[in-house]
């Protein structure tokens, strides 16, 4: 019984993971170590302001940063903690219907758990 449930659990997870937009290329340096004296939200805001990422990607990365998702690209991992993610999650929920379909698919498990409808 256990082996038959495993694919049912993994398939939705893998489907969401496959739709995550690729990290930005070009000027954004990739580093495995967290950036000292900055938090992830500051790093994401800087990249958005510089045009390295778009608003949809920034929203996705903010949620990843708040929930601690490993899909957050290394260059956006700050060493300082995020004090409160409530406003980030609320903002992402407010923007949900305006996001690209692939961004909505990646965010849905975090914003609308247990089958809740957007």
Topology:
Blueprint (H helix, E strand, L loop, with lengths): L1 H17 L16 E5 H10 L5 H13 L10 E3 L5 H10 L5 H11 L7
Parallel strand pairs: 1-2
| Poorly predicted regions | 1-19, 24-29
- Rg is 15 Å
If you average the pLDDT, what whole number results? 79
Total number of strands: 2
Strand content: 5-15%
Helix content bin: 40-55%
Number of helices: 5
Number of domains: 1
Strand order of the largest sheet: 1-2
In terms of structural class, how would the helical and strand content be classed? mainly alpha
Oligomer: single chain
- End-to-end CA span: 33 Å
Q: N-to-C SSE series? A: HEHHEHH
Shape: globular
The biggest sheet amounts to: 2 strands, parallel
Task: Provide the descriptors you would attach to this structure in a database record.
118 residues; mainly alpha; two-stranded parallel sheet; 52% helix; globular
